[in-house]
Amino acid sequence: MPNVMRSPTLNKSHSMSDADVDKLMSTASSLEEFKQSTQRDSKRRRVSEDSPIGGIDIRRIIREELRDILTELQEQQNSRMNIMEQHMSDIKNQNNNMHLTTTEIGTSIEFVNDQLKVIQSAISRLDEERKEVASQISRLEDKCDLMERFSRKTSFQIRNFPKQRGETKESLFNAIHKLTISLGVSLDASEVRDAYRVPTKHDNSSSMVVAELSSTLTKGNILKAAKRFHADSIKFKTDQLNSQHLGLEGPKVAIYLAEHLTPMASRLFFLAREFRKSMGYDFCWTSSGLVYLRKKQGDPYILVRSEAQLHQLRNI
Length: 316
Known about the structure:
It contains 6 helices and 7 strands. With about 325 residues, it is of the alpha+beta class. A hairpin with an 8-residue loop joins β2 and β3. It holds the Pfam family Baculo_FP_2nd. This is FP protein C-terminal domain-containing protein.
């Protein structure tokens, strides 16, 4: 009987145990979940455990399967890492842009601050110039007022002087002369340098007439006499100064004599009279174009030079 060649029996010590196969199969089953995302070759041949190929082929197949799965996982991880790196790059670019924007904003703020400093400096300089100009204007106004007051120092005004038809310089001179006679003041015709009516905005029946005399002494005597006349008329209940004392015909019209003040002094006199009423001062008067206040009889007088001085007196 011819000799029959038999396949050598596999030594169990060189083959995988059932437990090892079960462990590998369990691992392969677990990894099969990751393998479902891709399609496998439908024609790949599976070798069963009892295949004549043996346990060595099973290991090779399992290794290939594991390698494919790990390769796929690595590719997925690489793809995710690439996406994350791209996102990180975008975030980094955004941060860089934000940094650049912040830097530009900071530069703009510094520029604006510098411009504000320049503007503030210019405003301060203009404010100083404005104060200097205001001071110069105030000094010029004071000088103009002084010159105007000097030019009016021999003049007095007759307020509410009735207007007459055909009024002339001569008629005004005559009326002033008759007024001084009524006041008991001696006045030569040569002492009246000028007389004129001050124009008004409205066509009233009366307005102010200014009489310019040759000396301040004569002017002072006339104004003092007018004050005495006013006091006597109150004391003896007689007529106060009126148009008949000017020698004018027609109904009696009250007239008033006062210094011919400058516009600045006139306003100051008005404010001083209001101050006297509100602050309980007894006296307020003018002399030589200046305004005075006195609180009580016997108190020293106060020369009012400006509106600011009246505000200071209110706070005392």
